[in-house]
Every structure is written in structure tokens, then in C-alpha cells.
Amino acid sequence: MNDAPLTGIRVADLSRVFAMPYAGAYLADMGAEVIKIDTHHSQFVDTTRTLNGPYPDNEPGDLFWERGGTFQTLNRGKRSLTLDLRAPEALGVLKDLLRVSDIFLENFTPRVLARFGLDYASVKQVRPDLIMVSNTGYGHNGPYSNFGAMATALEPTHGTGAFTGYLEPDARDPNVHGSLVPGTVPNKIANSYTDFLASWSAQLAILACLLYRARTGRGAWIDLAMYQVGASFMGEGLLDYAFNGRRTRRIGNRHESFSPHGCYPCRGDDEWVVLAVRNDSEWQAFCQALERPELARDPRFADPVTRHQNQDALDEMIRTWTSDLDQYQVMEELQSRGIPSGPVLNARGLLADPHLRARGLFESVEHSPETKLGRQEYLSRGWNLSDSDVHIRGEAPRLGEANDYVLGDVLGLNPAEIEDLRTKGVIGERLLGGGTPSTVPLARQEELGWIVRQEPDYQRD
Amino acid sequence: MTPAILEGVRVVEVGSQVSAPFCARLLADYGADVIKVEPPGEGDEARRQGPFVGDDPHPDKSIPFLYLNTNKRGITLDLSVATGQSILGRLLEGADVLVENLPPAQSQALAQPLGMTSGSQRDIRGNIRTGLIVTSITPFGQSGPYRDLAATDIVTCAMSGLMYHSGDSDREPLRNALSQSLYVAGINAAVATLVALFQRLTTGKGQHVDVSVMECMATHLVQAVPYYNYMGAIKGRRSVRGSGIEELMPARDGYVVPSVQGSQPWSVFADLIGEEGLQDPRFASGAGRIEHGEELKALLEKGLAKWDRKPLFQASGERRLVFGMAQDAGDLVDCPHLAAREFFVNVDHPVAGSGKYPGPGPNLSGYDFQISRPAPLLGQHNSEIFCGELGYSSLDLVQLRAGGII
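Output (C-alpha cells, whole complex):
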């Protein structure tokens, strides 16, 4: 049996929402003891416990704060300690916990962090070799440092919109200043993209600092500005401006040098396939796949330059071909000839995909009976280690389930002291205040365009 | 002088294009000693990919290559012949990590250097003797039915599920620009490599890190997957029918993202935009904004047309609203905030000239980020490494060069 890589590492996870909680979840997968610093006061609770859902069959239920699918994904395998940080005792407990922790994750704005006295200079006094991650929108210095942020608004701010957008027929000049030329509209990448860039960047910095600490005995403060991290993923585009003055490059699904290259409709509703033809020999094979051998001799498509010039005509022919086929059929036709192609998968497609099944991307979790979540599957990681035990350790923690463990076993409080904190409302195991979240019926969500459709027979065995 | 975070870690990169080079660059940025191995003659395929400095398609002027290969030393080695493979084996004897992104079918090139008798990359279990960690990054990973399929960034974006959710609901899915799936895989590979290095501190053993580009990107879908598993609901692309809140909306000189996230009441938002109709109490609640979305969008457009992006962004931040704005590369390179964070670093390259390079993701206390080397010229460090570190003589080098090995 292999060991978990982070056995014996303790993480105090005060972070909220998506980016850092997800980093904490990965640390738990790696075997760290991750203690989520929760609260049972609804106005301060992690909003993924109350606002994000989704709930089984769209029913929040009595214990709704334990039942959100996104919350479960982002917090699997952690423990939960509730602390009302307004109480002075709570800050004392938190500092005691930091004293016996290796890693501290938080995402307050600098202003709030200082108010709690949890800035790095202060916590370093408590635990000199602590590795602390401060995740903020804009970082702890610079003119924007006190601005709040959410990934969905941050994403275009760090430049994705300069490089993501449909290609409009009247906007072919890649050198135009991209902001408000008619027809050139920046677009976004789905699902609060920046949160994930921040999560990966934090994980990398944490692991690097763990190795550094093992070698030198020193801790570190990781000042992670999501804006800056996002910009670091736009590197090629930023360097193009630095050297060539090009501000933007929105070419839809086309490619600078490959053609054809794009996304085409398939048989069915909202079904799509992508493909990329990289060179002349793939073009020849492509014409065979289309059963249009005459195209291989057509001078309009004879070389990469002419194909690039005549992409509108190419796209039209390809659309005609793909529209009658299933997305996997197109993939097979092209892949059998060595041409890159694949379906645009949605969540249902991912869950059913035979490759991902074979690879074990989804890991199964048996939930505690109180949650009535049963057994569910969650996204794991995009990588596998041959000789380490890395896996989802269990469900996201029920609110305050580790109060006695952390306060008693880890911090050495006696039962009377713990009960005193409970009586004072510093800790608690049921969410106080705030009503059951209202959910929008799925039929209405479909009308609003929040979901594409609902499949009543979705539950497989 | 603080020691580099990953001082003493030696990485050999057999990488092309984006994923493995980005992984190795990230490790180099933290101070690892990275040696990049390129095929003689042509080098990394990224050298032939644009855009180029001055739009001159010179192999040392590819912008992706220049960006992805800073802080590395570069050598050439023909891994398709036994001599090249055995030299790689010698290089790996002193290495902690091998990062590669060869197609699985070409992995026999690594069999001999890794001390394996058969060529199946699936069987790589690191080199236990030296504790080597082998990190392999491919579109679909080292197992499963798609293992050997062909892919470029648009294919892995599509198959990851992210692309389905990108773009507008009434149009085709939209690719995530700048090879994002390959960057995301590169950083995930760097994370997993360091996990293996950390575990080696206790076990002394190396291992194989198997990274799938498609799966790295798929792990972003923390909402769409439970939407289906919990409710059978398929989340799609952004609806074009909404109120405009949290979406890209036109202002006078570009696009902004008006946001009601955060704890401020609606009146703060309405005051900021300054369009009187927005004060209507029907818009004060989330439900009301959904119900009266189209009306709200029209009022927003009217109000935003009086604002430029940056003053609005500044004013929203000061009011503790969390607006965004669409910035292009010029806005970012000239951004005063990123300058204050010392994000950009001037790098001088002997062929490409000097430029302002994007720097680190997070800033680390007490540790100054540096780009101490520009991307290497093809084979730039051949004699430094072959003669200086592996013990070849300069005459050996002449022979290897004549044989086309380097």
C-alpha cells in the first residue's frame, strides 16, 4: 500500500467560495488533514454552503448547507471547525490552531485580514515556519489592492476577452484596437475561469514552499493576486504586445496557421464537433473522409495559405458533412486518418465518456445518511501518480463535525471548555439565521437560459 | 540573499510546444535547474509557431517559444538514435525530474535512458535506483481508449467540457484562446511533479506522473458536473437573454462587467451608474433583476454609455463593488497595478532583442522573482553541459555534431 504524500501535514483552511477551497480539497486528496474554518452564522458562512447548490432534484432540504453539489466538490475530504470570528475566544482558538498547522489558506481582502490580526506578520509570530496563502483579487500591494473581486468579473479584466471572441465578418484585421470596434466583442471563458487558475497556482506555490521548508526550515507568505495570476496565463499575448504592439487577437475557433480549424454542428440538439487540419497531408486525408476526392485537387485549398484564405467556403462544406453525423462518428472518421478531432462534450457527455470511465476521472463518495445524498460521483484530478495514494477521502464535512476533535484532541481543551464555547455561540453545528435557499424551478431555469434542458431519466444505476 | 525555492532540483525537459515547456518553466521560475533537450536542426516545434517578433518567422523569434522557455539552459540531442538516448541516460543520472510530452507511441525513445527493456510508456515507474520522477503530459494520458488519438488545443478544450460552456447560448461553442488547455495541463503537471518530489523526501523513490490535458481542463467543471449528477440539468453557455449583470456590456470606450456580487446594496450600484431608472425598487432584489432583465439591460446600456472603462472600474472599486472591464494586452502591459506588483521583467535576448516579459503568478515574501536567462538558442549550452557537466571532451563534441547527434 502506498502512502499519501501529505500525511502529517495540517492545513487551516479559512478560505471561501471556489479558488482556495478547491486547493484545500486537493491537499486533502493528497492526504493532508485539512480543517475548514467554518461558521454556523449564516451571514458569514461560505456561500457555497448556501447559494450555489445544486441540490438533489433541486430540493435544498432540511440540511441544505450540507447538500450543495458544488460545495461538496470543493470541500471533499476536509474536517469542519465552526468559529464565530467576532468573538475574541474564536480568534484565540484560531491562533492556537495555526500554531499546530503547516499551511494556512485565506482569501479576505487586506483590510479585513488586518482587522482580524491575521496578516502574515502576526501569524508568523505564532508559527514561524507557517506557509500562508493570501488569495485576493488584486494582491496586498498596488493601487487596486483593496478592491474586492469575483472571478466572473476578473476574467476579462486580466485579458481573456482580448483573445476570446467570435470571429466577425467585418473584423478581420488583427491589429485593430480591440475594445469597441463594431462587431468585435470580447467573450468569456466559462465557469469563473480565473478561480481555477488561482487554485492551480496556489497548489504549485504551496508544494514548492513545502519543499523549501523541508530544506531550510523556513515558511513563506504567498501573496496571490488573481488578477496577476490570470495575466500570467495570457503570457504569449502580452509578449506579442510588448514586442509587436498587437493588443488583441480574437479569431473565434479558427487558428493562426491551421485550416480548416473550427467547431461544427452535428446531428441532434446543441451537438458539436471540433477538428484541426494541420498540414497538406492531413488535408488530403480529410478530403477522403469527406468522400470528396475532387477537393484534394481544388486549387482553392491546395496549400495552407489558400486554405486559410478560403475558410468560409471550407466551413460551409464541412458543416454540410457534419450536420448529418453524430459527433463521435465525425471523431472516428477523422481520427482513423490521424486528424485531430473530438466532440464538444457537456457534463452528461463527460460522465458517459468511455475514456474518462476507463481513466477513473470521477471518484465515488458515500455520503453520511443525514445528508440524504446517497452515493455521488465527483471530479477528481487531471493527473495520476503511479506510486502514491491520492484520492478523494470522503464527503465535504458537515458543519462543525470536527469541533470536538479539533478543540479537544488537537488543541487540548476539556469538555467543559468546549461546551462553554458552544453555549456562547462561538461554535455550533446547525446553521443559524437565514432561511432555506429558494431555488428556481428547472423549467424556469430553462426558460431563462441558465440550463439547456433537464433530463428526467438522468439517474443511472 | 534568500535561496531559490527549488534550489538543487534538476529537471530535464524533453518537451515541445506548450504543455511540458510551461511545466518546466514554472519549475525553473521557482529556481529549479532546467535543461531543455531539443532535436538537432529544427528544435522545439514552438520555434516555428507565431506570432514572431517583428513578424519575422525566425526560430529564435517565436513569441510562444520565447515566453515558455526562460530560465532554462538548452541542449540538442537526437533521441531517435541509440547514442542520443544513452547520452540522455547519462544526463538523467544527475536529474530529479524528467518532464516530457512525447506521444505515447514514441515513448520508446525514453526506454533506454530510463533503464527499461521494453518501450511501453505505460510501464514507466520512474527510475527507482536514482529516484527519478518522470512526468508525462499528453492530450489523453497514458491509458484508456483515446490514449493514442491526435489532438491540438481546440480538441482538448472541446473534450474537456469547458468549451461547451464558453461563448453565447445562441451560437457555437467558443474556443478558449491562447492554448489554455495546454497551459492548464502544464501547471497541473508541475503541481503533481512537486507532490512526487515531496513524497520522495520520505520514500526516497521516484515515480511516474501521468497527466491528461483533457482531464486537467475538465476538473474546472465544478458546477456543470453536479448539475447533471444531482438534477439531470445540463448547464450551457451564457444566456444572451439576461439582464447584463455579470456579463460583458458596452461602455463608451470598451466593455465592462457590472457586478452585484459582494455585500453592497443595490442602491450603491444604481448610484454609481447614475442612470435614474436604475433606482426602481423592482431591481433591488436578485429575483426582481431576473424578472425584469430586459428592461434592466436597456437601462444599464444607457447608463454605461456615459462611462469610460477605467474610471468606472476605479469608482466601483472605491465603492466596494466588484466590477470588471475588458482589458487588452496593451492595457495589461501598461497597467500601473501590475507595475506596482513588479509583474513584468525586462529580458534581453541576443536575437529577439529586449522585451517586457510577464512574470510570476503569485508573489512570495522575501523571494525576488527573476528571469536570469532568456530562452536558449538552439544548442546554446551544448558545450557547457556535455563538456562541463557530463565529462565529454571538445573532440567528442565535434564527433557528436558531425554524426548529427547534437
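The mean pLDDT of chain B is 93.
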